[in-house]
Amino acid sequence: MQTLRFLITGGSQGIGAALVAQARQAGHQVVFTGRDAARIQQVATETGAHGLVADSAADADNARTVETCRATMGGIDVLVNNAAYGYIAEIGDIDVDQMRALFATNVFGVVDLTNRVVPMMKAQGGGDIVNLASTSGMKGGKGGTAYGGSKWAIRGITQCWQAELRPFGIRVIAICPSEVQTNWGGRTGRNNPNKLFAGDIAATILAGLAMPRRVLWTELAIFANNPWKED
Ligand SMILES: NC(=O)c1ccc[n+]([C@@H]2O[C@H](COP(=O)([O-])OP(=O)(O)OC[C@H]3O[C@@H](n4cnc5c(N)ncnc54)[C@H](OP(=O)(O)O)[C@@H]3O)[C@@H](O)[C@H]2O)c1
């Protein structure tokens, strides 16, 4: 695989941090974002990637992120829209302001950042956009109005962008992991060897990107093969 210039949102922990590390190990240039300065500094030091404190719900931060990519790497070949968080509440009990805030990060932040990156990719004649959706965006479930709704939106938006960007050589991919053992939703401390780890998702994303450029892998659901196995 040739050396590429990655922008990864939410690279300070979890799937994003695993992807920062694996992309750097493969020799790629990486700019990544997050909100927690200490975690960002740690990932940057460990990987040699360029970390940036930037809230993807803030338009001004997204503008600064793209400018940093221009300044440090000269452009962006791969945009990974990974930053997102959860809010679980059932209808009748939803705090709509919390749901609006979640959509500002999980949906509108993705649209705003990508809106700024696509003209650059069109001008350079191609690129890849990887959108982290979820199996929560493939099947509705209890408490999933806000988070599941945001991930259904990301899958639909991904299909719109595929229709718009295929003629420009820009591939848009939706990745839909099942449960991954990260700190997502404060669920720390899980270490089940049979369930998915952040590194599994990172490796799968890099495998998708390594496909011949003729190949557009539109959407991929990722499950653990045998999560019920007793060790
Ligand atoms: N874990 C799962 O089971 C699972 C399953 C399916 C899909 N996913 C999706 O995979 C992606 C990564 O999830 P994860 O499990 O790795 O979550 P995680 O461990 O909670 O990490 C989330 C990352 O996103 C960043 N982030 C959140 N909101 C942000 C914002 N407004 N601006 C900038 N950065 C922000 C966090 O940064 P700070 O920590 O610095 O704030 C962190 O680096 C998400 O899109 C998630 O919805 C996860």
Structure description:
Helices cover 43% and strands 16% of the residues. The protein has a domain at 5-9 and 77-222: NAD(P)-binding Rossmann-like Domain (Rossmann fold, 3-Layer(aba) Sandwich). By secondary structure, the chain is of the alpha/beta class. The protein contains six helices and seven strands, in the order βαβαβαβαβαβαβ. The chain has a seven-stranded parallel beta sheet, sandwiched between helices. The longest helix has 29 residues, at 96-124. The chain has helices at residues 14-25, 37-47, 59-73, 96-124, 145-165, 198-209; strands at residues 5-8, 29-34, 50-53, 78-81, 127-132, 170-177, 219-222. It starts with a strand and ends in a 9-residue tail after the last strand. The structure holds NADP nicotinamide-adenine-dinucleotide phosphate (NAP). The site of NADP nicotinamide-adenine-dinucleotide phosphate (NAP) has 30 residues, from helix 1 and strand 2.
